[in-house]
Amino acid sequence: MPKQKKADPIRVTTTGLDKRSQEVLRMAFSSAGKGACILVDEASAEVGICNMDASNARTLWQQNSTRYPERPMVVISVNDPLLENSIYVSKPINIVLLLNAIKQAHAVGCINQAEAIATGTTKPASTQQSRPSDNSKPSHRRAGSPPSSTEEFKIPDIKLSEIKEEVVSYYSPGEFLQGKLHDAFNFAHEKEVATQFSIKVDGEWKNITADPVHKKVFSEIEDDELKKLCTTPIFCIETKSSFLNKKETQYELYRNDKPHSESSIDQFLWKIALWTSSGRMQKGINPSSPIQLKHWPNLTRLQQSPNDIRIAALLSEQPSAPALVAKVLGIPLGEVFSFYAASHTLGLVRSVTKNRARPPSFNLPQKSRHHSLFGKILQKISGAN
Amino acid sequence: MSGNNHKIIFTGPVGAGKTTAISAISDIPVLKTDENAQDMTKKRKQTTTVAMDYGLLNLGDGERIHLYGTPGQERFDFMWEILTQGGLGLILLLDNSRPDPFKDMQFFVNSFSDFISDKKMVVGITHMENNPAPTIETYHHHLKKHDIKAPVLEVDARKKEDIETLLKVLLYSLDPWLGK
Which CATH architecture has domain B5-173? Predict the structure, then answer.
């Protein structure tokens, strides 16, 4: 039987990226991307990536649009530049999201080309073709980045059908603020002294003070800022930490010259883990390996994502793999990953298959005979909020 | 009970917040019978519930969920089995400011052991804002000794959102398929 021909890699060019960044991208395409994309010169590319944080980014963008009006573009930057006819991927770059964005852009390019052929032109039109009307495809699209709302944190979707173990996006807490904060708080807990962790934000030092005795955290950094910092690699952030004596602790905790928020240590670490994960899985954890909750998180006092209670109900009942939990509950896999990250940071999760001869069996939970009634109660109390 | 009348039971020691919790979510003012207690519970509260607290959730189409609060005093425990008949689940509220909340927990877990093994229980710990110890973790540790795995959440019985979360946790514990 002849081997199925592998699809040609998508030809990608970059604008506004230095040589080093291009090499990193080249490596990422061949490893995590499994050769789905390949870096080429400007003339032969099908999709373009434009770094909008480069000093002359707008000029480069304009030049590209003029020279290759039919070429779909992926733009990468810290803040969404809101450019028409582009797909935005926020920094720090998530390789899975970038690859998905490139594939989406390529698909758009193919549609444009097919349209051009169908209308009888021998080559794509020189001006940008309008896309087929499709409610799910706005002209400016954001590639799976988390929303800015702090009221309810919705996790970016990762479709289970597209998951293969090698393309699940992983991260290591130690490479982000989460790792540093965790270490500082642990050390403070062991020594029973308050710790002050300072971060330089827009040129100004802002403090996070943890009091392990009263299990409280006082933060001068607003949640919106903190959320952005959580996904910034730690080597990009300037930090320092120190321990406080009793007098300093009293002063720092009760000073009112700087606005700050107060929370419990568990509340603080939970949300830091949630934001750092942003739908990614922690390195070293296999999404197909069963995990179990040691007990329920204290959800009335923790930042909740929409399906946390459902995930907790399943994971406390029996060991389940994150991928299976997502499939059984019909929820985004990223939500399960983030729940795992947050629960793990509070020491609530354990892996189950370690040192076991046979992995545990998974029995689908039974639907209650009062299922319809429970649904009505749920609707009643949810609707009343 | 008729087919469209079901109940959820709130239990716990005197002053744990059962009446307040039911009031937080009930569609009707909570019906309770109070009298000045002649015994030592008078020192704890000015009024003591000596009959069942009663609240109601109207679901529409004549369907209702009755919310029952067990009497806080132990001498009424002969009524508890009657109360649990047809119950969907149990919400145990424990007062973290009491001298020995674990003893309270043990008492109620033993009293409702048959019901808990058949249905589900969630535990709400009240008065934690001024009494942070014992911690939630310690409650889990004590429950484990009884071989019980139940959600334990910090709640303020006056806060509707806390009691609603407690109820949601109970429902999803009973049926993880909800919402699918």
Answer: 3-Layer(aba) Sandwich (3.40)
